[in-house]
Amino acid sequence: MTLRQAHDARVDGLPGGGYAGPARHVAIIMDGNGRWAKKRLLPRAVGHKRGVDAVREVVRAARHMGLEALTLYAFSSENWKRPEDEISDLMGLLRAFIRSDIDEFAANDVRLKVIGDYKGLPADIVTLIEDALARTAHNTRTTLAIALNYGSQQEIARAAAAAAAKGDVTVAAIEAELDTADLPPLDLLIRTSGEVRLSNFLLWQAAYAEMWFTDVLWPDFTPGHLREALEHYATRERRYGGR
Ligand code: IPE
Ligand code: IPE
Ligand code: MG
Question: Rounded distance, CA 53 to CA 49, Å?
Fold first, then answer.
């Protein structure tokens, strides 16, 4: 047996390398709403509102471009540190977004999914979310996963504990307990607004994802920007440690 065969017999295999081609699962850290508003001397809330408009367009584009999954970072477990009035603006926008857009998801075969500890949100939003999840549960075209009260370290800790409770703490067993277990592997992670950090988002899932950082502020992010990122992604050679 060669060294490599001995190794392969011990570990879970990663996919083979090669040109990426079309992405199946894209995630976006939607950042820069505050700076967008500040540049225009507008209240931050206006930036967040324009951010929701950008979400709507990008979700439509993801559907038209045939993405299987789009995961959007909307509210982190650390965003509770923000001032009360900003949190309340964000919750108000979330409420309004679910109410106004759920019919469009339902009609267009979009499955809504939430990752993160959404039960920690205000009770009426939890109810809205659960109704929306139930209404779209059987849709199969595109999954829109919204990260709400999400922190990746917390997710990994929870998944590891669940795997341990079943007596199987392996990479595959932990992965099966992540909030994203039913999504395709993460192909491309986009962050807007020029920040180059993960801010506790999809740390595990990003192990071999391609990354795309753009200076565009989230409210200015258009389907054209998404297309540009996807075109770049398709040409990337993914190696997974091989060569
Ligand atoms: C991203 O925009 C939206 C959320 C984090 C909810 P920010 O509010 O973080 O905008 P900047 O980073 O201050 O510009
Ligand atoms: C990450 O953005 C969270 C979301 C986009 C929801 P932040 O603006 O909260 O991240 P930091 O604080 O700049 O790292
Ligand atoms: Mg920010």
Answer: 7
Residue 30 CA to ligand 2 centre (angstroms): 8
Q: Using CA atoms, how far apart are residues 153 and 198, in angstroms rounded to an integer?
A: 11
141 pLDDT band, cuts 50/70/90, is: very high
Atom of ligand 2 nearest to the CA of 74: 6
Q: What is the CATH number of the domain that holds 58?
A: 3.40.1180.10
CA dihedral 158, 77, 90, 114 (to 10 degrees): -20
The per-residue pLDDT for 15 is: 72
Q: Which domain holds residue 223?
A: 23-151+186-237
pLDDT, tens only, 221-232: 999 999 999 999
Counting atoms of ligand 1 from 1, which one is nearest the CA of 37? 14
Query: CA-to-CA distance for 234 and 229, rounded, in angstroms?
Result: 9
**Taking the model in full, what pTM does it have?**
0.95
* Mean of per-residue pLDDT scores for the chain: 95
Ligand in nearest proximity to the CA of 215: 1
CA–centroid distance, 44 to ligand 1, in Å, is 9
Tell the residue nearest (CA) to atom 9 of ligand 2.
79
User: What total of structural domains would you count in the chain?
Assistant: 1
pLDDT exceeds cutoff 80 at 126:
yes
DSSP characters over 76-99:
ETTGGGS-HHHHHHHHHHHHHHHH
148 CA to centre of own chain: 10
Report CA(128)–ligand 3 centroid distance (Å): 26
Has residue 167 been placed in a domain? no
